Amino acid sequence: MACCCGSSPSPESTPRYRRVLWVALLVNAGMFGVEMLAGMKADSTSLMADSLDFLGDAANYAISLGVLGMGLIWRARASLVKAATLAGFGVVVLGVTLHNLFAGSYPDAPTMGAVGLLALLANLAVLLLLMRYREGDSNMRSVWICTRNDVIGNGAVLLAALGVFGSGTALPDLIVGGVFAFLSLSGGWKIARQARGELRQARDTERLGTTAAESR
């Protein structure tokens, strides 16, 4: 009965979740460097887009670590920052995709495939660590959405490598770049929508508490 009545700590405040975020941050920071160098060498839009995604995710994990244990308002504000970062990444990727489309670049399919597979394995490992934390406030939700989008994007990079190799054109690589842009823009919108709702909820709670205190 004591266990049923007692309050357990929220998942985002546990040391285990903090360790998971640190692992995710280090993996994403390392993969950003690997994929950016490989993408520039292979002239691949999808690899460079994925590397920027890794960089954005590393920053988002760092923000999540910074607001752990803070109140809902601060966590929701951090989520709005992450939503803006994710949407901004989508705009940048869309610009790179359009640039390479008109520039007529042709990527190296074997490099795309090898690095894309490495990135997929890295993100799958992070996704498994985060599986139990996929539900929660907008801050936790944003971490899950970013990692899930990464796995989808890595699979798309592998498909693009196969498409470039089979078709002899850069079109599959450019299509995947467009997919990355869409995932980032839609993910940013979802995170921002939940964060705004949490801010309204927190402010309403504060207002009710103030009113109740004044009535006494």
From TrEMBL:
One of its GO terms (cellular component) is plasma membrane. Coiled coil: none annotated. The chain crosses the membrane at residues 20-38, 58-76, 83-103, 109-130, 151-168, 174-192. It is a multi-pass membrane protein. Residues 21-198 form the Cation efflux protein transmembrane domain. Gene3D superfamilies: Cation efflux protein transmembrane domain (1.20.1510.10). SUPFAM superfamilies: Cation efflux protein transmembrane domain-like. GO terms for molecular function: zinc ion transmembrane transporter activity. Keywords: Ion transport, Membrane, Transmembrane, Transmembrane helix, Transport, Zinc, Zinc transport. Pfam families: Cation_efflux. Signal peptide: none annotated. It comes from the Bacteria. It is found in: Membrane. PANTHER family: CATION EFFLUX PROTEIN/ ZINC TRANSPORTER, RE54080P-RELATED. This is Cation transporter. It comes from Chromohalobacter japonicus.
